[in-house]
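User: I'll paste a sequence; please echo it back and then give the predicted structure.

Assistant: Echoing your sequence first, then the prediction.
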Amino acid sequence: MNIPSLELAETFIKEAEGLNPGPWVQHSFFVGKAAEAIAEHHPKLDSQIAFILGYLHDIGRRAGVGDMRHTLDGYYFLRQQGFDDAAKTCITHVFPLKQINSVAGKWDCTKQELDFLANYLSGIEFDEYDRLIQLFDAIALPSGFCLVEKRLMDVALRHGVNEFSVPRWKAFLKIQKEFEGAIGQSIYKVLNGVVENTFGFDPCR
């Protein structure tokens, strides 16, 4: 795949954090770690590729505070660096449903950019890596991993709900089931800290 090395990905993240520090950086790290952990048990996926794609999925936030246009900013940035496959993930990670208006946020971009996104989506197929990052974008908090239902509720409370909310939730649960079938076990058996991050349980107390 056409993606940066781990060392270069880390350089991109450090640079982006300097431009726009925030909890998105730790969220991105945990998306990468979750994707890596599942890929280690998956018969068709490479764990380092999975980590890098997850780590860089929100790299568009280097452009500053914004909403859904971070997908485009990440796509443009990684395309300019010559990494088309990683650039793809910057867009696809927000689309468990392949519909432009189904995202849990607002499109703070131009009509031309929205038209580009719609055309882009219609011209690609999601692969296993796309689905992997979609799922773990919905599971990773800046503090670590949690039940997908908690993360979906967190997003709903912050952004509200619409006619796409329930179909989105069903899409995430379907992706979860598909990966669990592929690895032969619950994803939560592979991810550490789910109980603590979901229920606020501190084992040291």
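The chain is about 60% helix and 0% strand. The longest strand covers residues 140-141.
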